[in-house]
Write a structure and sequence with these properties.
- By secondary structure, the chain is α/β, with parallel strands linked by helices.
- 34% of the residues lie in helices and 19% in strands.
- It has nine helices and eleven strands.
- The chain has helices spanning 54-57, 67-74, 90-102, 119-124, 127-130, 172-185, 189-209, 228-238, 266-284, and strands at residues 12-15, 23-26, 46-52, 78-82, 110-116, 140-142, 145-149, 152-156, 159-162, 214-221, 241-244.
- A hairpin with a 7-residue loop joins strand 1 (12-15) and strand 2.
- The radius of gyration is 19 Å and the shape is globular.
């Protein structure tokens, strides 16, 4: 558990629980390996932080085929650090970028957030999302969440161990009653998922500018029916460069998934890496008509 983020990738090598059980290398500070060793390949001309959930992390994908590793390989003059973490939404992605700077791990020029519309429920910690979250101890936990209070966006710290009801661990009936009570108590959070996420996307670029970084929101997944256009517009209004990095067909075909049904595989990550690289290059390119 982590007191700010709720959880963070543990340093070392972990095996995925998807097809192939691939080894995934993690470095200090929750970083997924993005090159052969943690040290920079060369004095970097640009520092790039990737943040987001398990898709940006590259869950189930070997180190060398993740978007972060591919981006670093394509641009050895950059320093690419991948802070993507399974289960993160917009709020935790922003907090992880802020911590990377505040802890002195990286002073990025660019922060790229890999956005997916399903992050919205994570940002407010809906019942459906909390129901599947457990600490290694088996205790329930709640990630940091945000809510709107008038003009303010209020961030609540994570709860690292939610108390079980008496007898809950021994009685399926008590556990079911607790689950139903929690569902009723948290029902209104579903309605707040989109408004809160819109606010987070609008404020994310300013939070990055406060740490001397440009913000890119790379759309990895979503549809208009899920409000994607509204989310993209909110990020753009906040000052982020928004780029559509969705794989054609949204990458849902079995040959694009780990084991046919898991996370996006290396083919999709290669597409994301090219898309993100182009978006970063575009930040430094002159605007059409500039200087005329």
């Amino acid at each position: 558990p982590h007191p700010v983020l709720g959880w963070r990738n543990r340093e070392g090598v972990a095996r995925s629980n998807e097809a192939g059980a691939v080894a995934m290398t993690f470095w200090s500070g929750g970083r997924r390996a993005s090159r052969a060793a943690p040290a920079p390949l060369a004095p970097p001309r640009r520092r790039v932080a990737l943040v987001g959930g398990s898709w940006m992390q590259g869950y189930g994908v070997v180190d060398e085929e993740t978007a972060g590793f591919r981006l670093q390989s394509a641009r050895p003059e950059w320093l690419v650090e991948n802070f993507g973490t399974g289960g993160y939404g917009t709020l935790q992605a922003q907090l992880s970028a802020e911590l990377a700077v505040d802890e002195g791990r990286l002073a990025p020029d660019v922060v790229v957030y890999g956005f997916a519309t399903f992050h919205a429920m994570r940002n407010v910690a809906t019942h459906a999302w909390l129901a599947g979250l457990r600490a290694r101890s088996g205790d329930r936990l709640a990630p940091p969440r945000a809510e709107i209070d008038g003009p303010r966006l209020v961030v609540h710290a994570p709860v690292l161990a939610l108390p079980a009801w008496p007898l809950e661990r021994r009685s399926a009936l008590v556990a079911a009653i607790h689950e139903r009570a929690s569902e009723r108590a948290l029902r209104e959070r579903d309605a707040w998922a989109e408004p809160v996420t819109l606010r987070l996307l609008r404020t994310f670029p300013a939070a990055m500018r406060a740490r001397s970084a440009r913000a890119i929101v790379a759309i990895l997944h979503g549809s208009e029916e899920e409000g994607l256009g509204r989310y993209a517009a909110a990020a753009a209004r906040g000052g982020a460069a928004v780029v559509d990095c969705r794989y054609p067909g949204d990458g849902a075909q079995p040959h694009l998934r780990v084991g046919g049904t898991g996370h996006p595989n290396g083919i999709v990550h290669a597409h994301w890496a090219r898309c993100i690289e182009a978006a970063i290059d575009a930040l430094a390119a002159p605007r059409p008509g500039a200087g005329r």
